[in-house]
Amino acid sequence: MLASMAVSWTLKSKFRKYSEIGLRSGLSGREVAEMMLADNNITDVRVISTEGMLTDHYDPTNKTVNLSEGVYASRSAAAAAVAAHECGHAVQHATAYSMLKFRSAMVPALSVASRYMQWILLIGIIMIQTTLIPLAIGVALFALTTLFSFITLPVEFDASRRALAWMDTRGIVTTQEHAMAKDSLKWAAMTYVVAALGSLASLLYYASLLLGGGRRE
Prior knowledge:
The chain is mainly α. It has one domain. The protein has seven helices and three strands. A three-stranded mixed β-sheet has the order 1-3-2. Helix 1 (2-19) runs antiparallel to helix 7. The longest helix is centred in the last third of the chain and has 42 residues, at 175-216. The mean pLDDT is 92. It comes from Adhaeribacter aerolatus.
């Protein structure tokens, strides 16, 4: 939890810092996104604005790149990096990137697991002296969510790689701006790394309860 808070604070701090430095090309986040989509021959994805800070995401269900208010109209290295990153997901979708397909295929099962997992784990802990079945089911569901967290990592890293490579090739950023964009995306990726490790730690905790309960039986 402390690591997650530290990474989140650092990400917001970096984003605010780099958002104050104007992009030499003068392009807004929206313009960067539209250019990257066009360069990859993606014509069926819309770029829209969404409320909040760092709420940027690509929605494959309605094919929209959703840019937060601080990115959509901003003309900074941070905004360009985030906009290009989200378009990186659109490119993954358009090119049937294998890890994204695998991740998307897990979503239906994950939604069910997330809905009932905590209740099943609670029941399992309460009944651990009687039966291990509910806790075992809960651990299995938690393992699914943990797997999803780790599968998300290569998807996010690949989107950032695509974004940085395209911005360099297109001349969107200077060498200094590239460093700022890379740093922004690095800390954004760290939030997913910490989330995955946190999920793994929790999974190991519940698994230890399951194994300990089994020995007591």
